[in-house]
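Predict the structure of DMT family protein.
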Amino acid sequence: MKGFLTIVLLVISNTFMTLAWYGHLKFSEWKWFNKLGLAAIILISWGIALFEYVFQVPANKIGFKENGGPFNLIQLKVIQEVITLIVFAAFTILFFKTENFRPNHIIAFIFLILAVFFAFKK
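Done. Here is the predicted structure for DMT family protein.
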């Protein structure tokens, strides 16, 4: 159960992270947003990123083996990175129609999945 909760929290966290890091590129289509300076955009992204931490910190605390969770630190990081790329890929496909995934991107994702496999191998 702690493993599942950790992964759910990491997915939510990474959704906010992706929105904070890349969402402003899509928001620029809104006229009012284009009037904002870089400092305002950074503050908005920082505000969104706050929610990333609200979910990321508990995910790591719950999932970490030394706190009674199922994952060691390396496993937590590998899981987080794969979730980041999955969320990013979904975000890109849904919101940025001009971006294309090519075979080399898929191969890269396969290698990341292999990284998860090897991180969990005893």
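Residues 2-27 form the longest helix (26 residues).
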